[in-house]
Amino acid sequence: MTFAAQEQSREAGQVVELYEFIFGGSVSRFTSFNQDITFAGNDYVATQISRTASKSSTQDTQGQVTITVPIDNPVAQLFVATVPGKVGSIRILRGHANDAAQETLLLFDGFIANVALDGELEAKILCNPNTKIFKRSGPRFSFLGLCNHILYDERCKVSIGAFTFTGLVSAQVGNDITVNGAGAIGLSDHFVGGFARFPSGGTDDARMILVQAGDVMTLLLPFSIPVVGSTI
């Protein structure tokens, strides 16, 4: 039976909603179904999760969706002490648990705009649709002494590999991390304005470096997980 047929059936349909949270190369998948389920080769963990309906209007809140999860949900935990270094993406799919073809309908595709912790029990994740990006004013090219490009972006000619250092983190105190060997690179402020990326070589999370004193880097925000003993 096709998705459309099950969707219209009063008896055959067994609706399931699938949630995908993406932060860089890390993906967390959940479902509101009463048990874990596999769809299109991806495993979705059953959890207490709900959402508001996406509404069409002329207001700035057009298309917004608020997702409610328990405070101990892994995605909510990313925002308890600090915030991730990358904007999280969210996809919501609708399918039927008894559909052999496992066809799905995309209900929402957007990004996380805000996370509000509601007491000690719930977290409310406010999500904007990707279409909201088109309302922003794009930057215009200007004639000026500085370069118009963002460092290491697609139009920048500087190679990120030529300016990358990988080292072992031996200490982590608040916003400070100690990266063995970083101070021997050259100037005392060599990494100021750059960023620390964890895992090294990956795209999961990054933090801007504000101050450098030898091997010690002061980050704009601390990493949400311990990084001592890891390369960065």
Give a quick set of tags describing it.
single chain, 232 residues, mainly beta, nine-stranded mixed sheet, five-stranded antiparallel sheet, 2 helices, 14 strands, 38% strand, globular
General description of the model:
By secondary structure, the protein is mainly beta. The strands form two sheets. Strands 3-4-2-1-7-8-9-6-5 form a nine-stranded mixed sheet. A five-stranded antiparallel sheet has the order 10-11-14-13-12, with no helix packed on it. The longest helix has 6 residues, at 3-8. It is built from two helices and 14 strands; from the N terminus they run H-E-E-E-E-E-E-H-E-E-E-E-E-E-E-E. It has helices spanning 3-8, 74-77; strands at residues 15-23, 26-31, 37-39, 42-46, 50-51, 65-70, 89-96, 105-118, 122-129, 169-173, 176-179, 195-198, 205-213, 216-219. A hairpin with a 6-residue loop joins strand 12 and strand 13 (205-213). The chain starts with a helix and ends in a 13-residue tail after the last strand. The radius of gyration is 22 Å and the shape is globular. The model has no long low-confidence stretch (mean pLDDT 84).
Order of strands, widest sheet: 3-4-2-1-7-8-9-6-5
Number of helices: 2
Summarize the main sheet.
9 strands, mixed
Q: How much of the sequence is in beta strands? A: 35-45%
Q: What is the mean pLDDT?
A: 84
**Which parts are unreliable, with pLDDT below 50 for 5 consecutive residues or more?**
none
Apparent shape = globular
Give the H and E element order. HEEEEEEHEEEEEEEE
Sheet/helix structural class: mainly beta
Q: How many strands?
A: 14
Radius of gyration: 22 Å
Span between termini: 50 Å
Query: What is the helix content?
Result: under 10%
